[in-house]
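[step 3/7] inverse_fold.run input=structure_tokens len=388
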């Protein structure tokens, strides 16, 4: 992985466009019941075992490879072009002994149509594709009233995945169990001291989700209700998860959101110091720990996304990796533009044991975290003095 500078709130967290026009209230109750029923059903496939054939190149013969990426954001032309430049016509998926799989840790596209085009392109390029939803995937502002709320759109995305052969539930690839975990963030995830020396914009001003997503009345970003709702979607996969745990030598779980606050820079390092309040879930960390509870050392990995910070570190016996494509303007700040190392190969008949260099995880692998220190880093202080 390559170094990645902190992301300015103006890049991905800024004032929003108007919220979409709601659907007619005459159908609201019926559609809500249907949406929740379909959403839970779509999240509960049975585990499947794949061995695959027809690999991408002779060097990969008889090999199971798993690549990971997050935050594709293919509403940007440059990002869709990146997807389309990936080689076509391999990846396995038949009856042989090798397969190339891709794990997509959320934030594929803002519209359902772009999402479907992106996932279809990825299915042409990999023998298996796995997906969990991110926050941008559930935005409604450009759907022209197509969905009553973001849960109905979630159902539509999961239906599209089913039609395209994209996995949204547990599956075994060779000796590796891959388990997608649904999640959402909650403010109480943030346990570290706030920065009060500068005026920090409110979450509602800085984070588009508060306006671009729409939720039924009993679910909201203001408390833990959304995080609990998404976490409980995983209960429908529990039998499949247990089967994967019994049958796999190694396990990769993945989510869009962040499972531990240590996987994000301290607030004083961030252009938007309140970022930790909208990135992660304690329920997610507890759930993935129960999945990896009996996993041997070096056999447990969790992939996440959302913050656009490259990351590769081991915390309490589990390896945590983020490999975001991110926005085009963010890639320009990376040494190799992200084109040479993405998607990141995390597994080749076993997890790649090498911890890859990434600016922030390298920093915290060498330096103690100081959450009580709220003195702004020089680049953050300069930013606030200029704009606030």
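[step 3/7] decode complete -> sequence:
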């Amino acid at each position: 992985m390559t170094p990645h500078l902190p992301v300015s709130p103006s890049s991905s967290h800024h004032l929003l466009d108007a919220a979409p026009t709601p659907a007619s209230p005459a159908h609201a109750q019926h559609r809500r019941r249907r949406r929740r029923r379909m959403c839970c059903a779509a999240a509960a496939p049975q585990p499947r075992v794949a061995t695959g054939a027809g690999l991408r190149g002779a060097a990969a013969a008889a090999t199971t490879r798993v690549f990971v990426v997050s935050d594709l954001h293919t509403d940007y032309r440059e990002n869709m072009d990146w997807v389309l430049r990936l080689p076509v016509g391999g990846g396995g998926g038949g009856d042989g002994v090798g397969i190339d799989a891709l794990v997509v840790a959320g934030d594929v596209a803002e519209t359902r149509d772009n999402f479907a085009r992106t996932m279809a392109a990825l299915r042409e390029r990999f023998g298996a594709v796995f997906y969990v939803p991110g926050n941008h995937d559930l935005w409604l502002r450009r759907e022209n009233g197509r969905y009553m709320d973001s849960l109905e759109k979630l159902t539509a995305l999961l239906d599209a995945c089913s039609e395209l052969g994209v996995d949204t539930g547990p599956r075994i690839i060779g000796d590796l169990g891959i388990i997608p975990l649904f999640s959402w963030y909650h403010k109480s995830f943030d346990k570290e001291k706030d920065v009060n020396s500068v005026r920090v914009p409110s979450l509602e001003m800085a984070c588009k989700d508060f306006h671009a997503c729409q939720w039924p009345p009993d679910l909201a970003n203001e408390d833990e209700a959304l995080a609990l709702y998404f976490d409980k979607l995983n209960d429908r996969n529990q039998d499949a998860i247990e089967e994967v745990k019994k049958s796999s030598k190694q396990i990769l779980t993945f989510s869009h959101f962040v499972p531990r606050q240590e996987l994000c820079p301290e607030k004083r390092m961030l252009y938007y110091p309140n970022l930790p309040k909208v990135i992660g879930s304690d329920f997610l960390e507890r759930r993935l720990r129960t999945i990896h509870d009996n996993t041997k050392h070096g056999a447990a990995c969790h992939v996440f996304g959302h913050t656009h910070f490259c990351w590769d570190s081991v915390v309490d016996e589990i390896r945590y990796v983020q490999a975001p494509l991110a926005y085009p303007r963010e890639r320009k700040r990376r040494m190799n533009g992200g084109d040479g190392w993405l998607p990141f190969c995390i597994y080749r008949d076993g997890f790649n044991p090498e911890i890859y260099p990434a600016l922030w995880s390298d920093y915290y692998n060498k330096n103690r975290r100081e959450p009580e220190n709220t003195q702004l880093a020089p680049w953050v202080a300069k930013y606030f003095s200029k704009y606030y």
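[step 4/7] annotate
Residues 2 and 386 are 28 Å apart (CA to CA).
The chain has a mean pLDDT of 84.
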